[in-house]
């Protein structure tokens, strides 16, 4: 019985690295939208292939150095270009492989991700207008008649090192954006002054807010929670004080929040 227990514990210990690998996200935040999951997939695929090619080529070079060293009687080649069919094959093989990687392995998932990011064929469940200003965000639900501002809520005492810094230092606001979970949302970005950029890493989206232009992107958040981001375009002396906070909640909770916002607006 004790031997069986040791065998089970050994098997579980052996599976631990596999479990850790499956949860490893290469330092990305947990993706909560289809576009974020696609981005993470392409990134991890690229890293695995790039590292495999690197170590494969390195091993081949080291073997070639050892196998064809001068002490074994090998002489340096005197040709400056491929002459035989075999030489042409080995010259063209990496080129063909890179074409397949770029346009097949990486290109198809990347194209699919762009289609999701720019999907304007399906009607949105909700439209949110995001306007950047120095140095705050303004959110508007045009169809619902709701508009409000979202400013940094971190106390200045923390910024000036007069108080201990909080857990969400420089990533907390007075009025977070609230969205319903599982709904397709059309974001429209613009700016009142200079170029800003609305960025939430867990959503896998980042769109510049350009004065005089309306730019859009699409997202559907599949998991409730609070997600944080920042302005990612240098926009002035308080650029670091433009956080983005989005709370994704169930539909009934969103409806209640929207009703409260309407009452305050009116």
Plain-language structure description:
The chain is an alpha+beta fold and 266 residues long. The protein is 41% helix and 23% strand. It has 5 helices and 10 strands; from the N terminus they run αααβββαβββββββα. The protein has helices at 2-23, 34-67, 85-117, 156-159, 251-265; strands at residues 126-133, 136-141, 146-150, 177-180, 184-191, 196-200, 205-209, 215-220, 225-231, 243-249. The strands form 2 sheets. A 5-stranded mixed beta sheet has the order 3-2-1-5-8. Strands 4-10-9-6-7 form a 5-stranded mixed beta sheet, with helices on one face. β2 and β3 (146-150) form a beta hairpin. α2 (34-67) packs antiparallel against α3.
Key words describing this protein structure:
alpha+beta, five-stranded mixed β-sheet, 5 helices, 266 residues, single chain
H/E element string?
Answer: HHHEEEHEEEEEEEH
Question: Which ranges are low-confidence, i.e. pLDDT below 50, for 5 or more consecutive residues?
Answer: 4-24
Q: What is the helix tally?
A: 5
Described by the principal axes of the CA atoms, the overall outline is: elongated
Question: Structural class of the helix and strand makeup?
Answer: alpha+beta
Give me the count of strands.
10
What's the structural blueprint in terms of helices and strands?
Elements: H1 2-23, H2 34-67, H3 85-117, E1 126-133, E2 136-141, E3 146-150, H4 156-159, E4 177-180, E5 184-191, E6 196-200, E7 205-209, E8 215-220, E9 225-231, E10 243-249, H5 251-265
Parallel strand pairs: 1-5, 4-10
Antiparallel strand pairs: 1-2, 2-3, 5-8, 6-7, 6-9, 9-10
Helix pairs in contact: 2-3
């Amino acid at each position: 019985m004790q031997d069986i227990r040791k065998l089970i514990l050994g098997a579980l210990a052996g599976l631990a690295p596999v479990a850790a690998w499956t949860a490893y996200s290469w330092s990305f935040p947990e993706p909560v939208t289809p576009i974020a999951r696609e981005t993470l997939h392409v990134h991890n695929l690229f890293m695995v292939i790039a590292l495999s090619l690197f170590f494969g080529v390195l091993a081949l070079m080291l073997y070639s150095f050892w196998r064809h060293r001068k002490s074994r009687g090998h002489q340096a080649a005197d040709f400056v270009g491929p002459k035989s069919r075999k030489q042409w094959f080995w010259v063209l093989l990496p080129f063909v492989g890179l074409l397949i990687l770029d346009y097949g392995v990486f290109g198809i998932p990347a194209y699919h991700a762009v289609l999701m990011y720019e999907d304007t064929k399906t009607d949105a469940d909700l439209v949110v207008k995001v306007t950047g200003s120095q140095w705050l965000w303004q959110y508007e639900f045009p169809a619902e008649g709701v508009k409000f501002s979202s400013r940094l809520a971190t106390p200045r005492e923390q910024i000036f090192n007069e108080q201990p810094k909080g857990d969400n230092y420089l990533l907390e606001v007075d009025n977070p954006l609230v969205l319903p979970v599982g709904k397709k949302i059309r974001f429209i970005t613009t700016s009142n002054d200079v170029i800003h950029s609305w960025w939430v890493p867990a959503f896998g989206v980042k769109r510049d807010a350009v004065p005089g232009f309306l730019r859009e992107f699409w997202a559907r958040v599949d998991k409730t929670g609070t997600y944080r981001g920042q302005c990612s375009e240098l926009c002035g002396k308080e650029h670091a004080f433009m956080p983005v906070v989005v709370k994704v909640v169930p539909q009934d909770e969103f409806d209640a929040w929207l009703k409260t916002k309407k009452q305050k607006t009116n």
